[in-house]
Design brief:
2 copies of one chain form a homodimer. Chain A is of the alpha/beta class. Chain A is built from 15 helices and 17 strands.
């Protein structure tokens, strides 16, 4: 933010000036501004400044006035399996291992080819931009098909180079998964909205040898490692039986702990493990709905917060959530942390908003590009109306975003300054096409 | 449901025939019907029967076709302080006793007169019918003002004859609270949509003598007793200090346990207490969001369910939730029960829908009139669209209602056969009036 002195004599040309009722920039933390505007040139934020100053300093090509609305960074979905939106509600009320073994894996082995991934990711991206999500961190087969879908909708995607020991329609063995994922990464190098992470599925599906290879690759390529970790107590018991140690200790020995590691779920953690992950500057992808729905448990977010372990929020896939909605996850995260610790002051509204934006960006190594409204960052944004009758009155926009509003109140989503959703509708695809895609796969999956 | 034989030669006149894609009648349990219709005459359900048979048997004045939608009983909000919608988000991220003592009680003592209650309950009722809620069980001052608001919106209300030992703008002492509440009840006897319960606030705000009077009155008047109970561990510790026993045991000794008792929150329960409440045929009003938000804890719903203790769902007031939305509560209840017990099979979708309808009706002693779609019951109904693009695909309507849909998908709400909400808008009041009411009180509360 510039000091309010010495306006330039000649106004600067910008592409977009957004003038909402409130702005929550995330950096600095805990701040809600009113009477401010955000200036965007090309794909970047140029300035966040008092409204009157903005009108003097800039000559915008387009001005968007948003009375009654709050502008904040686009939300970062730190863990999903986007293509699984086609399996939304396909199996419910089952524990993780039965849910996977009896319902999800059989359906995937029959159906999960590139067409499935393209279609499912398309639905997922449309749903996500509807709810103000601008970036998602994905783990699924055929990431090239997922990339096509993300590009179509205009979202920023971090695609997992997924690795699992057993064969699927996508790849034959761990080496094959890695080779395919790396080739897709090479082919996508020039797309500014795409990046990649290594995505070994879980401790119980990936061998030591493969984890070692991944640790080496992560160092060479300087990309994150995204892995399901300490999701269930069953996973930990199995690791103790097979490896003699808990999964985090196993990954430590294999060289995987460090600032590149995103531990997804992290439900069952001992205090020493939280300290270890914090010391190693790892990150947690907290997925409260999914952890509850599969009966996995409740992550110790109060301790994770107090030990300074960075965390973001994830929806997980729509087969275990069943909606890709970070407004639900923010509310769940804030409420659950308080209830589980019996401390109503844990994870307050601003801290929760930070987790859903900058926390996720940090985990992905993207915090210099996204996650807050600092000048120079990408104009990944969402606007939420807080003036709708059924959520009145509003005393504090941050509280309202976390505890009251829903994704139905999101009015605009921008990625790199480009409007990808407005009026409840994705900009790049028609509703009828989305319904056709969902209908086609519903028929295939039930016939 | 009638057998599909011998259609009447002359069609019967009815007022309304609803033909949705699916019907979830709640009774019988666990059933989702398709190709069925619901017939309504006056304020009552006449029949639920196969669509073709309905077209032969009835001559409806009005037919409502609902393709892609599911029809179910109107939701029952088993615990709220409706007027507190004016304090939505007025104080957050504080524990119960500080939240009450530092923020809520001071604001109430300045503002909570009849105008406040009328205005706040009006907003609350409008919000509730928007989300498919047809009945609410209220606990607040000036229930006559709340009654006016409920009548205006057309909702069914169970109004608490609130009792608390300390003086407020409403009443001077326990006897005065009781006298005022009973007089309001007498004056409202002829309103078919209004009924009453005794509402001693909580063990920590009501004396033994008053609880004894309430036990006697409950027996004489045959109405429920609605009390905050075992909400926080602090409440239990204080009871042990002051009374030598935990609150449930204290209430047992005072003669309050029985089928008329609605224990609100019931977060901190020992196994013997769950058994005792079940044996005495008491009821629990489970308020998952509020219990989490105030840091009270997580109610043992897995044990409550398995011991056969009846329960319904409540939003609590909008000051501690912060939305009067039973779709959120259903989702929270189902997910939280699984997560806390690490058992994904607890509280499945159908069981959760039952809690939000028939469970609440049973607790209120209204299960012969509402809570399911049996012929003879009141036509308190809601319809929810499951064909919207961002919640596709849909494999199971019950699962979709609990795990995917939100109140934004509710399209119609009927109370006693009268449409009280459609197209997202309450039938009996304009949006501009609601916004004016909220705006006026926002100004008063912040000035």
């Amino acid at each position: 933010m510039k000091p309010p002195s010495a306006p330039a004599a000649v106004p600067e040309d910008i592409d977009l000036l957004i003038r909402p009722e409130w702005i929550i920039p995330i950096e600095p933390a805990g701040v809600t501004l009113s009477g401010h505007a955000l200036a965007v040139r090309g794909e970047r934020i140029v300035a966040l400044l008092p409204d009157e100053e903005a009108l003097q300093r800039f000559r915008p090509q387009q001005t968007v006035d948003l009375p009654g609305q709050v502008l904040l960074p686009g939300l970062v979905n730190l863990h999903t399996h986007a293509a699984m939106s086609l399996l939304r509600g396909y199996a419910d009320d089952l524990p993780l291992m039965r849910w996977l073994g009896e319902r999800i894996w059989p359906a995937e082995s029959r159906h999960a080819g590139p067409d499935f991934v393209r279609a499912g990711t398309l639905l997922a991206c449309a749903e996500m931009v509807r709810g103000g999500i601008t970036t998602f961190n994905d783990m699924y087969f055929f990431p090239d098909a997922a990339a096509e879908a993300a590009r179509r909708i205009g979202m920023r995607a971090v695609l997992g180079i997924v690795v699992i020991e057993f064969p699927t329609r996508y790849a034959a063995d761990a080496d094959d998964y890695l080779a395919k994922g790396l080739a897709i990464r090479d082919a996508s190098k020039d797309d500014p909205l795409l990046s990649f992470c290594l995505a070994p599925h879980a401790p119980y599906t990936v061998a030591d040898k493969t984890f070692r290879t991944i640790a080496t690759l992560a160092g060479q390529l300087e990309i994150p490692v995204h892995v399901h970790l300490h999701e269930t107590s069953h996973e930990i018991e199995e690791s103790l039986k097979q490896h003699g140690v808990r999964p985090i200790e196993r990954l430590r020995r294999l060289g995987l702990l460090g600032p590149q590691l995103i531990a997804v779920h992290a439900v069952h953690l001992e205090a020493t493990e939280i300290d270890l992950l914090a010391r190693e500057a790892c990150h947690v992808a907290h997925c409260p709905s999914s952890n509850l729905k599969l009966g996995s448990g409740i992550a110790p977010m109060s301790a994770i917060q107090s030990r300074g372990l960075n965390f973001g929020l994830g929806t997980d896939g729509a087969a275990s959530n069943n909606r890709l909605d970070l407004f639900h996850e923010m509310r769940h995260a804030a409420l659950l942390a308080k209830g589980a610790s019996q401390d109503a002051e844990v994870l307050d509204a601003h801290r929760t908003l930070e987790a859903a934006t900058l926390g996720g960006a940090r985990a992905l190594g993207l915090d210099r590009r996204i996650g807050s409204l600092l000048p120079g960052k990408a104009a990944d944004l969402c606007a939420v109306r807080l003036d709708e009758w059924l959520i009145q009155p509003c005393f504090d926009p941050a509280s309202h975003l976390v505890y009251v509003a829903g994704r139905e109140q999101v009015t605009h989503t921008w990625v790199e300054g480009k409007l990808v959703m407005s009026n409840g509708v994705p900009a790049q695809i028609s509703i009828s096409e989305l319904l056709d895609v969902a209908g086609l796969w519903h028929t295939r999956l039930t016939s």
